[in-house]
Design a protein that fits this description.
The chain starts with 7 loop residues before the first strand and ends with a strand. The longest helix has 15 residues. 19% of the residues lie in helices and 15% in strands. The chain has 244 residues and is of the alpha+beta class. A 4-stranded mixed sheet has the order 7-6-5-8. The chain has a 3-stranded antiparallel sheet with strand order 1-4-9, covered by helices on one side. A two-stranded antiparallel sheet has the order 2-3. The chain has one domain: paralog of FGE (formylglycine-generating enzyme). GO terms for molecular function: formylglycine-generating oxidase activity; protein serine/threonine kinase activity.
Length: 244
């Protein structure tokens, strides 16, 4: 059976300025007050910590419906909905990890979901930028709710919204699974919940989807699948693998 090759981006080992400083969280919440997101949700990003992230590879774009269709046909799963060049959405975490294993066996690679830190490193690069493309939000650089499209777009449709490493769609289009279960960051403020019992799945998602507002385009924003209809909320995924 045909297996589509992955357009990998090499992310070098480097420093990640992860999260948001505690003393800046209130200002962040105020800056995005129009989205209706309470300050407590931003507290999960604190504290700012500098960590070394080893080199890895990440897919330039999310897994598409066309790529998923090959997996579905090989494993007897339902065929995906939507155009083949759009990100596949409605994928549960366990199914996403199964896809990684299946593709990895065929490519002879350790294909997996990125960790939360790897995802943020790929989005932010070497600095602490607010968005993958820079410090300021600009409508038209990502498929978020402000565009009014209301559904996915072909992957890679917003090249000017690329991250410093050239990774695309790290904001909007599909909210992306990571391999990391939710937990407060070490040293987090006391009011940050130890678990998110209200989440449909305990794993962190990143980047936001077509139905989300600009706050979820932020590189530091930690999210999750909080509703069971994963297609309606636009949950998809992208691949990671060890560095060459």
């Amino acid at each position: 059976m045909q297996v589509q090759q992955v357009n990998w981006v090499e992310v070098p080992a480097g420093l990640l300025r992860r999260g948001t400083p505690v003393d800046e969280v209130a200002a962040v919440a105020s800056r995005y007050a129009g989205t209706g997101v309470p300050v407590e949700w931003y507290m999960k990003e604190a504290p700012r910590t500098e960590i070394d992230v080893p080199a890895f590879r990440i897919a330039r774009t999310p897994v598409t419906a066309g790529q998923w269709a090959l997996f579905a046909a090989a494993t007897g799963r339902p065929a995906p909905q939507g155009p083949t060049d759009h990100p596949v959405i409605g994928v549960a975490w366990a199914a996403a990890t199964a896809y990684c294993r299946w593709l990895g066996e065929r490519l002879g690679l350790g294909v997996r979901l990125p960790t939360e830190d790897e995802w943020e490193r790929a989005a932010r690069g070497d600095d602490g930028r607010e968005f993958p493309w820079g410090e300021e939000y600009r409508t038209g650089l990502a498929n978020l709710v402000d565009l009014g499209i209301g559904t996915t777009t072909p992957v890679g449709s917003f090249p000017e919204g690329a991250s410093p490493f050239g990774v695309l769609d790290m904001a909007g289009n599909a909210d992306e699974w990571t391999s990391t279960p939710y937990a407060p960051y070490p040293g987090a403020p006391a009011e940050v919940p130890g678990t998110e019992d209200w989440a449909f799945d305990r794993h962190i998602t990143r980047g936001g989807s077509f139905r989300h507002d600009r706050d979820l385009a932020r590189c530091a924003r930690r999210h999750g699948a909080y509703e069971p209809d994963l297609a309606a909320i636009g949950v998809g995924f992208r691949l990671a693998a060890p560095a060459v």
